[in-house]
Design brief:
With 596 residues, the chain is an alpha/beta fold. It is built from 27 helices and 17 strands. The strands form four sheets. Strands 3-4-2-5-6-1-7 form a seven-stranded parallel β-sheet, with helices on both faces. Strands 8-13-12-9-11-10 form a six-stranded parallel β-sheet, with helices on both faces. Strands 14-17 form a two-stranded antiparallel sheet. The radius of gyration is 27 Å and the shape is globular. It binds adenosine-5'-diphosphate and zinc ion. Adenosine-5'-diphosphate binds next to helix 3.
Length: 596
């Protein structure tokens, strides 16, 4: 049997382990169980794939989605590993072939869904075989506290009793303390170590801005941060918005598709397939899109409304930049989003405990969106991590917002809300403050209020900013389910009495390009060798009906183009080129380079 370093090099083509991978691999090789917390793109798969190939017997990998299993299996087969997936969409003959592999001992990794694994008789059949390990991927699905609870995962609690001698490795990108504790309890890992990695993804540029002109902001974001290569995801709050945004992006000249849970299964599969195939496509989706997306060259993720909490948001933006190249995340949100989310929590039938958790999540998310200091530090603090210094790769670090004292404006707005009886929305209050005698103002006699016209010196945009800050601080409540009436709350008092000051952050993201350019790796796309390699990969991927990146990642092709290896020996040294790929594609790659 080969050791972990050889497997890593020869099978996966990587020069060394990353972060805590080695420690985890060695722990499992010694027969240990544990929980791995690593951000999306951190390299969780190798933590069980390498031990699976080092230990005798079959490794069983539990995975929640067929698309996810199939991609991993396709990638492993490319690397020359005997892997298969067992799921409900297999033909009878395929299913039999998989079982033959299990019983002959030729199969090394078996991917299964949780419902399949715990089906009648399945565990008994597996128990007849030597098992290398169980890996439970996306392990947060087992927890009700997680944001993707899947009841089928609950049956996995049996693994600990039924297979006490087989290592169990649970893996997730969710680091929320409650969920972590729940996973450990459910999977019998309370005595096993937790391997927690840094959740920082320094190559993802973070930005957030109030949603003022959504389309202009999105257009500016695309112009500034996307070169039309790789993919992008735009998360929309509703199904209808996914369709509208995709239509609009197509009209703007981008290839764009919609994805949401209400679509036909065939349409969903087609969307996944097109995304996986490596097209330069922008997916406009609800958060139903994402699990199992491991395309490495997603260049941006944008959100058009406020996510429910930092874990979900981080997992969604973590789909960008898995290849380590620069990527961008943009969050657009409004005061209405915050108020709506608060009301939803209060009105939900959930228990008080659950509500408390959801409130805390939401407030943490608001804190990130409204941050006036390094956004990444605020974000990582939600996961219990303290960055030693500002990141230099977020909107705030790049262009620190100017803060101005807006206490007086806050008092005026709050008093306008109070004096009009909390029965009017922002537009009307702005009219009152700016002294505009509209029909509605006249009708209600609001031109006779002392606040009428006291805010004429400030433009409407500033008033919106003041209102958003006050909503996010809880001093104003917005009745979103009615007409967005603004109501001053108990928390408004310290502002009205002058005991608390309001610092207003100027808009951090304006649609303009006066900002310093993003640090960028030397762009390889002018290189004819890189283009030729991509063309070759496209043909090869189509012929084998696999996603392009399972053949070679962009990063690997770029490296090959840069190094121009002249022999198989030289090609072998390029990171990302393992033995199996060298054997399969080495000659073809060299031929493409010679011709380019
Ligand atoms: P996760 O499942 O944690 O989201 P993956 O296992 O899909 O992440 O790995 C993310 C990317 O990082 C993949 O493209 C993988 O090939 C790469 N990767 C993982 N470990 C290493 C390593 N030790 N060296 C180089 N690349 C790695
Ligand atoms: Zn920063």
């Amino acid at each position: 049997m080969r050791g972990p370093d050889e497997i890593l090099r020869e099978v996966f083509g990587h020069a060394g382990f990353r972060g805590r991978q080695r420690e985890i691999v060695e722990h499992v090789l010694a027969g240990g169980s544990g929980l791995v917390l690593m951000p999306t793109g951190g390299g969780k798969s190798l933590c069980f794939q390498v031990p699976a190939l080092c230990r005798p017997g079959l490794a069983v990998v539990v995975s929640p989605l067929i698309a996810l299993m199939e991609d991993q299996v396709a990638a492993l087969r490319q690397q020359g590993v005997a892997a298969a997936a067992l799921h409900s969409e297999l033909e009878e003959a395929e299913r039999r072939a998989v079982w033959r592999g299990v019983f002959e001992g030729s199969l090394k990794l078996l991917y299964v869904s949780p419902e399949r694994l715990t089906m009648e008789g399945m565990l008994e059949r597996l128990a007849e075989r030597p098992l290398a390990l169980f890996a439970v991927d996306e392990a947060h699905c087992i927890s009700q506290w997680g944001h993707h609870f899947r009841p089928e995962y609950r049956a996995l609690t049996r693994l600990a009793e039924s297979f006490p001698g087989v290592p169990r490795l649970a893996l997730t990108a969710t680091a929320d303390a409650r969920t972590v504790q729940d996973i450990r309890a459910q999977l019998g890992l309370l005595d096993a170590p937790v391997f927690r990695s840094s959740f920082d993804r320094p190559n993802i540029h973070l930005a957030a801005a109030p949603r003022e002109q959504e389309r202009a902001q999105l257009r500016a974001f695309l112009r500034e941060g996307w070169e039309g290569r790789g993919a992008g995801i735009v998360y929309c709050g509703t199904r209808a918005r996914t369709e509208q945004t995709a239509d609009w992006l197509r009209a703007e000249g981008h290839d764009s598709m919609a994805f949401h849970a209400g679509m036909e299964p065939a349409a969903k599969r087609e969307a996944h397939r097109r995304f996986a195939r490596g097209d330069a496509v922008i997916m406009c989706a609800t958060i139903a899109f994402g699990m199992g997306i491991d395309r490495p060259d997603v260049r941006f993720v944008a959100h058009l409304s406020l996510p429910q909490g930092p874990e979900g948001w981080y997992q969604e933006i973590g789909r960008a930049g898995r290849d380590g190249a620069p990527a961008r995340a943009l969050l657009l949100y409004g005061a209405g989003d915050i108020a709506l989310a608060r009301h939803r929590i209060e009105e939900s039938p959930a228990g008080e405990e659950q509500k408390r958790i959801e409130r805390a999540r939401l407030e943490a998310m608001v804190g990130i969106a409204e941050a006036a200091t390094c956004r990444r530090r605020v974000l990582l603090r939600c996961f219990g991590e303290d960055l030693a210094q500002d990141c230099g790769n977020c909107d705030i670090c790049r262009q620190p917002p100017r803060l101005s004292d807006a206490t007086e404006a806050a008092q005026k707005l709050l008093s306008a809300a109070v004096r009009t009886g909390g029965r009017f929305g922002l537009l009307h209050l702005i009219d009152v403050l700016r002294g505009r005698l509209t029909e509605k103002v006249a009708q209600h006699g609001h031109d006779r209020l002392p606040t009428f016209g006291v805010g004429a010196d400030l433009p409407e945009g500033v008033w919106r900013g003041v209102a958003r800050q006050l909503v996010s601080l809880g001093a104003l409540d917005m009745r979103v389910e009615n007409h967005g009436e603004l109501v001053a709350t108990e928390a408004a008092r310290p502002f009205l009495r002058g005991e608390k000051r309001l610092l207003l952050r100027e808009a951090a993201f304006a649609p303009r390009s006066a900002r310093p350019p993003a640090q960028r790796r030397e762009a390889p796309h002018d290189d004819p060798a890189f283009a030729a390699l991509r063309d070759w990969r496209k043909t090869e991927a189509r012929a084998q009906a696999v996603p392009a990146y399972v053949i070679f990642h962009d990063a690997t092709l770029a490296e090959i183009a840069a190094r121009r290896p002249a022999s198989l020996e030289e090609l072998r040294l390029v990171p990302g080129v393992g033995e199996s790929k060298l054997e399969r594609y080495g000659e073809a790659v060299l031929a493409v380079l010679r011709a380019a």
